[in-house]
Amino acid sequence: MSAAERILSRAVNEITPGSIVNLGIGLPTQVIRYLPDDFDVQIHSENGILGAWKQSPPEAMDPFLIDAAGAYVSLREGASLFDSAVSFALIRRARLDLTMIGAFEVDEQGNLANWKIPGKFSPGIGGAMELAQKTPRIVVLTTHTDKHGRPKILKSCRLPLTAKACVSRIVSDLAVMDVTPQGLVVREKLVEISDADLQARTEAELTFAA
Amino acid sequence: MSAAERILSRAVNEITPGSIVNLGIGLPTQVIRYLPDDFDVQIHSENGILGAWKQSPPEAMDPFLIDAAGAYVSLREGASLFDSAVSFALIRRARLDLTMIGAFEVDEQGNLANWKIPGKFSPGIGGAMELAQKTPRIVVLTTHTDKHGRPKILKSCRLPLTAKACVSRIVSDLAVMDVTPQGLVVREKLVEISDADLQARTEAELTFAA
Amino acid sequence: MKKNQTLENAIAAIPSGAVVMVGGFGNPGTPFSLINELVRQGQTGLTIIKNDANEPGHGLSRLIENGQVRKLITTHIGLNKGVIELMNQGDLEVAFHPQGMLAEKIRTAGAGSFGFLTDIGIDSEITQPEDLLEWQGQTYKVEMALPAAYALIHAAQADWIGNLVYQGSAINFSPLMAMAANHVIVETPDLGAPGRFKPEHVHTPGAFVDSIVPLESLTSEYGVLEHHVRR
Amino acid sequence: MKKNQTLENAIAAIPSGAVVMVGGFGNPGTPFSLINELVRQGQTGLTIIKNDANEPGHGLSRLIENGQVRKLITTHIGLNKGVIELMNQGDLEVAFHPQGMLAEKIRTAGAGSFGFLTDIGIDSEITQPEDLLEWQGQTYKVEMALPAAYALIHAAQADWIGNLVYQGSAINFSPLMAMAANHVIVETPDLGAPGRFKPEHVHTPGAFVDSIVPLESLTSEYGVLEHHVRR
């Protein structure tokens, strides 16, 4: 299993039946492929969809129906379509139960940075800030380290924040960690790895649940 | 012809083809009965209708479709229905061409008072303030004097204003008057009446067009 | 997720003293069945937000006549002499707003915002000096958002997950209140399975709705009011 | 009243230097034909308000690549490296807003209001001290309304008097922009007579629309983008 597959196959278990879930651009939108076809969930897409579902077969693909990442989606029974003001009203009114979102950096206070690398990457903030600030539960999906092997899970974010103290849980390719008042607590490991080795790949201090 | 009939049958000529018109509670909503069936106009009702039309026959009456006065209306081809926020957005964005509205008092500066008689009558302001303040053209339909024979067309309104300097034209049961920078100018008389007699029933100073 | 509820349980969620929005402009959109159950259960000290007070003996007027309402936030009660009298006697506190301002205050709460800047009524007696804001060289009136704990809504049609469709002029305040209240209770005579609506025809997405009460049929109070028929 | 216009005449109404809103999130809702005509006519110094810049060689990106845009007010241009480069070189001024704030700023203009009070991004680097307002004991960020002289909109269906129906995820910013712009220009491949829509299915009431350009058919740029199909 690739790192991405490990993250996605674990992340799908974060979705509880009956919930309303936003999937951010990148890894999160791919979680939808891991959901059973009859699973009771409504996927929200910031561009005005409640009830988005998996990609249609090519002959049924609707060029006027995409998710926030530009992928062609289908609609479930009971779906609704609306304008961007209603879509973000739904976000700001905390009618979502869960948002899964990517990260450049996340830290032990639950701060999230995922929109700007000053001087390098600043394509705009999209819907991330409102999702991060207003969704009751944020689960970050991220590789544990960047492509150079440097930790992405930090003591304190160095990049401009998307939102403060917003993250509840981190699902990396190595472990599942919760943000708690006592810092990051490792709940599960997704690979064979020692506590010391996991800590070595993490800047934040980890607590290992008994 | 009664006073009301004189006002209504003259008022209907204020509606130009292709226009969007709001009819206020009272005399104005009755103007709709005087419009030819094929007349090109869209009647706006503040409770969320564009394209309201005459009362349906009893067998076709829809209890879920009323105008702002509570009367059962029908819809024309091309009608649309929307919520109260959109309805008043349309008003505040000045997408109406004309509002016909009733008055307790109107004055020579075009000030309008039609919502409150302190100590006597204050049932709330409804949609009047936004209609009066934001419609490009306001035509007041009113009897020239009140039921005690006192002038309703004044030098300066004494009641709390609905909106300042908003009225373009007054259609009374006696005359049609325009609000101009030089004060009220009589454009037409709707009954046989001398200039002096009309002035005697009017507190504001009238100018008689040549 | 099925949001179906009995009438009794749905209304029992509302405590005395609650702030409750009620949809409807005149009869259309008024959730008579939900209001009647609130009358039956007897919660008191309520603050009600509704465009109007309905007409004597009907809808919201019943709740007011029964002494359950402490404060009414509204736009116009001209069709209800009884409620005007209660207001004039000091037995009912009434706050009036221009209709579009009431709609926009509710919608602002529904958008998760806290207020908006307007010029409506800015030089009229409805504006107090403390409502005025000087900002970037201009003067505005600040209208604060108007949220509520509960909303009572009538929908022509619904599905189990809360998608709503309204009818005729019964849309009015309902979609705005469904966005603005923390707990949204809907009555409908026509409840069905998800998939019954084309997604672009849904007026209120199900995410805004908490419980749905199916009505067996519409009683006569939902019908044509004879005194509003022009002869 | 018929609002039909030719493509050429509709776009000729827009002068150089104008502020123009453009509907669409990604491809859906982007009025490619109206944009292409604006490229052909060559108006310059435009300020464009659009969620994104489309992808290189398509839609808004063509207008930007052609040097006609002075300033872009947007939320995310991550799918357009060429436009990011123009921004980084200083050849294009870009102002970013969180997506829901952009939507709400446009909608606020569309509601005839002047600004709103929010807490989004209030303690982030997108907020400057001069954006903050102390009001009734709380601190808010003031977001001002964002109006425009013109809006370019794609509708799936329309009628002669301007009633619009959108399709799929192509609704997005379009109804908000139709409310917010002073002069609203719509393209549609499916224009018909009034009466074709059920009144409760209309997304944008005709009163907000000024001119309608019928399209003979939809060109390939309205179709599926192969590189967004997951294999």
Automatic annotation (TrEMBL), chains A, B:
Pathway assignment: Aromatic compound metabolism; beta-ketoadipate pathway; acetyl-CoA and succinyl-CoA from 3-oxoadipate: step 1/2
GO molecular-function terms, A-Z: 3-oxoadipate CoA-transferase activity
EC number: 2.8.3.6
Keywords linked to the UniProt accession: Transferase
Reactions catalysed, as given in the entry: 3-oxoadipate + succinyl-CoA = 3-oxoadipyl-CoA + succinate
Signal peptide: none
SMART domains, per the entry: CoA_trans
InterPro entries for this protein: 3-oxoacid_CoA-transf_B, CoA_trans_fam_I, NagB/RpiA_transferase-like
The keyword Transferase is assigned to this record: yes
GO biological process: beta-ketoadipate pathway
Pfam families xref list: CoA_trans
Domain of life the protein comes from: Bacteria
Family listed: Belongs to the 3-oxoacid CoA-transferase subunit B family.
NCBIfam families for this protein: pcaJ_scoB_fam
Protein name from the UniProt record: 3-oxoadipate CoA-transferase
Organismal lineage: Bacteria, Pseudomonadati, Pseudomonadota, Gammaproteobacteria, Pseudomonadales
TrEMBL record, chains C, D:
SUPFAM superfamilies, A to Z: NagB/RpiA/CoA transferase-like (SSF100950)
Presence of keyword Transferase: yes
GO term, biological process aspect, one: beta-ketoadipate pathway
Superkingdom in the source lineage: Bacteria
Keywords: Transferase
Enzyme Commission identifier(s): 2.8.3.6
Keyword Transferase: yes
Molecular-function annotations in GO: 3-oxoadipate CoA-transferase activity
Pfam families (UniProt xref): CoA_trans (PF01144)
Name of protein: 3-oxoadipate CoA-transferase
Lineage: Bacteria, Pseudomonadati, Pseudomonadota, Gammaproteobacteria, Pseudomonadales
